[in-house]
Write the structure tokens for this entry.
Amino acid sequence: MPYNGILIMAVILFIIGITGVMVRRNIFIMLMSIELILNAANLVFIAFARAFADPAGQVIALLSITLAAAEVGVGLGIFVAIRRTHNTVNVDEINLLKH
Amino acid sequence: MNNIYYLWLIPFFPLVGFIINGLFGKKLPKPVIHWVANVAVWSSFTVAVIAFFDLLKVVPGQRILVDPVYRWIFTGGLAIDIKFLLDPLSAVMILVVTGVGALIHVYSIGYMHDDPSYYRYFAYLNLFIFSMSILVLASNIVLMFVGWEGVGLCSYLLIGFWFEDEEKAYAGRKAFITNRIGDFGFILGILLMLVIFKTLDFVEINKILIYHGETLSVTALTLIAIFLFIGATGKSAQIPLYVWLPDAMAGPTPVSALIHAATMVTAGVYMIGRLNLLYAHAPVAMAIVAAVAGATAFFAATMAITQNDIKKVLAYSTVSQLGYMFMAMGVGAFAAGIFHLMTHAFFKALLFLGSGSVIHAMSGIQDMRQMGGLKKYMPVTYWTFLTATLAISGIPPFAGFFSKDEIIWSSFASSRGGVVLWAIGVITAIITAFYMFRLVYMTFHGENRSPEEVKHHIHESPAVMTIPMVILAILSVIGGWVGVSPVIGKLFGVENSNIFEEFLHPVFAHAHIHFHHYSEATEWWFMAISVGGALLGILIAFYLYIKRTDLPRKIALKVWPLYKLLFNKYYVDEIYYYLFIHPIYLISLLFLWRFTDVYVIDGVGVNGSAKSVRFTSRILKYWQNGDAQVYIFSFVLGVVLVLGYLLLA
């Protein structure tokens, strides 16, 4: 199958992303890792869109890129605010609700 | 079957009275309280009288009027209605209940006038009339059971009316618990009835028994009859469950008159009358009823001889008279049993009211050894009391003679009776006359033996108390004239002199109990024996308690073991204590409380469930720690596990 390479690429991206979210404590790195996961999914959409000659996959990929952009906008805003008020980007230290 | 749409008013009025006095009585002035209660019960009586005359308008064979009020339970094949039934039997009973009840309500105004819980007393009394009329008018056995339990509750509440006194509260509990034992049998009877008949309606059951009676299993019918009779032994104080009634005298005396003499305790007799066809189909059960009744009548009468408490004598007398009624039921003389129920309601209510009047005058003293010579202080009480005593002793022409003699005669003449039952009846009649006149002589005759401070305010009771007594005294005389046996009727040239039996005949007609025929001379002889027996009893009492007052003590000393046995009521209470109450108490203390309650219910049940929740949450809380990365790790782990399973499987 000619798209195996692309799918393997997507899997690798996904694993890097999810590992990043799980192990890193810096919220900016975690957000970037989430972007990686999203892009892994986009890659799969594109690959199958080509494989089945169906443009629906590309449409979904475009939609998800748009959503990811919006999400990054909101997320980064929050994180910058946290950085300013709490003077930290470490998730372990952002635990106000726990106390 | 015709309808009678106002029958529900009979229980309705006392219910309203109960609600008014029960909810607002505390704030109402005394006159309002007793007017509310009295108007309620007199209205019921009026409705009952109207209903009675409406019933008389119907042709004798079709005298069954119903008042369907409400469909109560409707599930599967079972339909239970709140439906009231008026036939000659319930008509007689409802007239007695509301009539005697109304008189006792009036009497209570005088008797209870100083009581701080006046409103509570009248509220309970109204509730009792309500429950009792439900019991009497019920057209199915479940509704009857509702009334049955209701009167049991009122009995408990009124026996323990002065609950500050531990002993009186105990008497109330004893009555309630003893009745619960009987009710257990009653419930089993109802359930078995449902299985056998598929209906609980009295009219339907009678139809089944008339048309298909032979196809039903006799064993099942016998079992039903025995179970229901166990209920009756509790409510109507028969052996072995009679022990609560003497203690029930702890309640106010009008209560003893109304509940524990005239009405509630006769519920068992009424129940057998209602189900006479069922009992007729179960000869073994009827034999048991007759045997238990004979034993109760005799033993209760012997226990009454040695009692010194005026109310206790009357209590045992009630047990004994109830034995007579059940004896009539057991030999199939249903009409005679109901007849005695009615006359007994008159004269026994009067005896209790009279004793209440005496206790009232004696400032609460109930011991007859401290009375004596009250005749000249309270003439109305004395004469009415004497009337009732003559009636219960079975002296013609007083009411008790006709009913008691009919029972004694039937117990001989019935194919289900016999000479043994007859002999028990006669001996009991002698003892009855003896202990009743012992009571009269000790209380009203001879020297006054009361303490000085009591003596100078012995007085006749007010009119509000004496008038009900006079009315009941009149009824104790003439009440029996509606059921004169044909032999005597002939003497006076009256045809069909037994109007009462004729009136009830349609209810009992299908039972087909065979009575042997004897010549009139035989019947006269038997009558002479029972009257002669009663006169003998009176004579002995006269000799022992008027002529030779030193003798009773000597006789008691001479037959000391027997006297002691009787005085201690055959030690039945003690036997029950060691046989049942104490073991149950011990089991409760050592096992049910210390183990079942503490370890099983509290330990495993209540605390156990709380502890298990705490334990699991203590473990689970490490998982729900608010750390998003741990959650993600859980997701990934879950996905890996599920995917791994799908791929490998």
Notes: The two ends of chain B are 75 Å apart (CA to CA). The first strand of chain B starts at residue 2 and ends at 3.
